[in-house]
Amino acid sequence: MKDYDLVSEFIDNAKSKGCKIAIDDFGSGYSNFEYLVKLKADYIKIDGSLIKNINSQKESYIVVLTIVNFAKQMGIKTIAEFIENEEIYKTINDLGIDFSQGYYFSSPKKDLF
């Protein structure tokens, strides 16, 4: 992102109209904590690559725990994707993640409308 002022202005305008800001795939690629501060995110969707390995890789668990603790301190809600089984669901629930999605709850459905 090159022009934080322009993006910040857009976000402020969107929020003034009742919109919420969510950062998708946080914890992968170029995402970082500075983005969360500058973009005034309301939600962080934690990258599925971290969630799906949360019980098998200590590093993934530690990164998710760090994201969740930071988010709570900043008043940002967290979303976990890739909840594939009860074991993962229990772990993310124990960490205090606010929302979750994945095959554990339902497979994707075709548009019914």
What does this structure look like?
The chain has 113 residues and is an alpha/beta fold. Strands 1-2-3-4 form a four-stranded parallel beta sheet. Strand 3, helix 5 and strand 4 form a beta-alpha-beta unit. The longest helix has 17 residues. The protein is globular, with a radius of gyration of 15 Å. The relative contact order is 0.14. The mean pLDDT is 90.
Structural descriptors:
alpha/beta, four-stranded parallel β-sheet, 113 residues
What's a concise summary of this model?
The protein has helices spanning 4-16, 33-39, 48-51, 58-74, 86-95; strands at residues 22-26, 43-46, 77-80, 99-100. It has 113 residues and is an alpha/beta fold. It is globular.
Draw up the topology in text.
Layout: H1 4-16, E1 22-26, H2 33-39, E2 43-46, H3 48-51, H4 58-74, E3 77-80, H5 86-95, E4 99-100
Range of helix content = 40-55%
**Spatial order of the strands in the main sheet?**
1-2-3-4
Distance between the termini: 37 Å
DSSP strand count: 4
Shape: globular
List segments where confidence is low: pLDDT < 50 over at least 5 consecutive residues: none
Major sheet details: 4 strands, parallel
Strand content: 5-15%
Class by helix and strand content?
Answer: alpha/beta
- Helix count? 5
| Multimerization state | single chain
Radius of gyration: 15 Å
Q: H/E element string?
A: HEHEHHEHE
Mean pLDDT equals 90
